[in-house]
Amino acid sequence: MESKILVTGGAGYIGSHTLVKLLEEGYDVLVLDNLSNSKLETLDRVTSITKKKFEFIKGDIRDKNILKEIFKNKSINSVMHFAGLKAVGESENFPIKYYENNVLGSIVLLKEMALAEVKTIVFSSSATVYGQHSNNRYDEKTPTKPINVYGKTKLIIENILRDIKNSDDNWSIGLLRYFNPVGAHSSGFIGENPKEKPNNLLPYVAQVAAGLREKLFIFGDDYPTVDGTGRRDYIHIEDLSSAHVRALDYIQKNKNILFTVNLGTGRSYSVFEMINAFEKVSGKKIPFKVVERRIGDLAEFYADPSKAEKLLDWKANFDIKKMCEDTWRWQKNNII
Ligand code: NAD
Ligand code: UFG
């Protein structure tokens, strides 16, 4: 039997785009997702885009029996681990839910991987593990001190993976710290589809442009930045997913390693710059109102992506215009 990649959380935003890339590269894939924040229809759309088949199991990473079955019967050789909860605000209000889903879920998964001798994993971490620093350009040596529960869960999982690697050199592990993923597949078939009111800037802007929301609330214009709004390193989802395939390829070829890399573009944009770019590509006016700063927001941070560029021979290619164009195409088509 061919060996397969297990993609946890493969029906979600980043997972589904990476699934497209994996299938296009010829990987055999099994998706495990409990659909708590995604829809089955997304997976049908992945099939329409790629014209390729893959297996899907609806299930939870905290369910060791499902994992045992998968590792016993499906010839898995590597795992891409996207499954997790990601809403920063919710994580502060419901810490147990976050520790249980993200940390406990990862422990159950890692234990079953170890038992099945599957020791190759790419993990979705986040730039939020860094917290606040005086220098806005974060490289991987920037100390980690997350300021919210969500970020703490990511750092705990990273540390568990480091400890596992220290105890058993046969593991190959890629820790990918994403900056701000945005955009959608260029087909307009899949994209980010928040079930609730969007927390993140670009999905909110897109919904305002589409007339689904009246105006954008800008969280503060008194930051020490050029126009007073927060600046972030937005990275196109297709660039982010390509990096995953490179990371997987790297750990499959270079056994017994653990690496940590930032995935970003290396430059930041302000809220006003994003609004202007979106207005240009959509031809829509984005009404806004400046309100209080959002608790926990930082003025600016962006990636030093040079390590990922060197190690994975990868670079983010898509610019802010393409990020807005693809988001807008997806928003206009978004009926799921
Ligand atoms: P998403 O919510 O769209 O996707 C996560 C998927 O995991 C969903 O399909 C959900 O149903 C599934 N899932 C959640 N808990 C599960 C469980 N216990 N068992 C099985 N499936 C489960 O989120 P996303 O934006 O695609 O994020 C993917 C990963 O990347 C997450 O781990 C997230 O924390 C991380 N990340 C996201 C961002 C971002 O801005 N989107 C930034 C940094 C890191
Ligand atoms: N913003 C607004 N109005 C909104 C939403 C956002 O003004 O309605 C502003 C924020 O204040 C910030 C910028 O737009 O200045 C970006 O905010 P996002 O919520 O889009 O992104 P964050 O950087 O706050 O957080 C994101 C993810 C986190 C992840 C972090 C780092 O939501 O999960 O990037 O990777 F941890």
Quick summary of this structure?
This protein is of the alpha/beta class and 336 residues long. The protein has helices at residues 13-24, 40-50, 64-73, 88-93, 95-115, 149-167, 201-209, 237-253, 271-282, 306-312, 320-333; strands at residues 4-8, 29-33, 55-58, 76-81, 120-126, 137-138, 172-178, 180-182, 216-219, 231-232, 234-236, 258-263, 269-270, 288-291, 300-303.
Commentary on this structure:
With 336 residues, this protein is of the alpha/beta class. The protein has 2 domains: 4-184 and 234-266 and 304-317, NAD(P)-binding Rossmann-like Domain (Rossmann fold), CATH 3.40.50; 201-231 and 267-298 and 322-333, UDP-galactose 4-epimerase, domain 1, CATH 3.90.25. Helices cover 41% and strands 19% of the residues. Strands 3-2-1-4-5-7-12 form a 7-stranded parallel beta sheet, sandwiched between helices. A 4-stranded mixed beta sheet has the order 6-15-10-13. It has a two-stranded parallel sheet with strand order 8-11. The longest helix has 21 residues, at 95-115. It is globular, with a radius of gyration of 19 Å. It starts with a strand and ends with a helix. The model has no long low-confidence stretch (mean pLDDT 96).
Integer-rounded radius of gyration: 19 Å
Distance between the termini: 35 Å
Structural class: alpha/beta
Small molecules bound:
nicotinamide-adenine-dinucleotide, uridine-5'-diphosphate-4-deoxy-4-fluoro-alpha-D-galactose
Major sheet:
7 strands, parallel
Q: Which CATH class of the largest domain?
A: Alpha Beta
Oligomeric state of this protein: single chain
CATH topology category name of the largest domain: Rossmann fold
Count every helix, treating DSSP H or I runs of 4 or more residues as helices: 11
Could you list the spans in which at least 5 consecutive residues all have pLDDT below 50?
Answer: none
Order of strands in the sheet with most strands = 3-2-1-4-5-7-12
- Which series of helices and strands comes N to C? EHEHEHEHHEEHEEHEEEHEEHEEHH
Range of helix content:
40-55%
Average pLDDT works out at: 96
CATH architecture of the largest domain: 3-Layer(aba) Sandwich
Overall geometry: globular
Domains, number:
2
Portion in strands: 15-25%
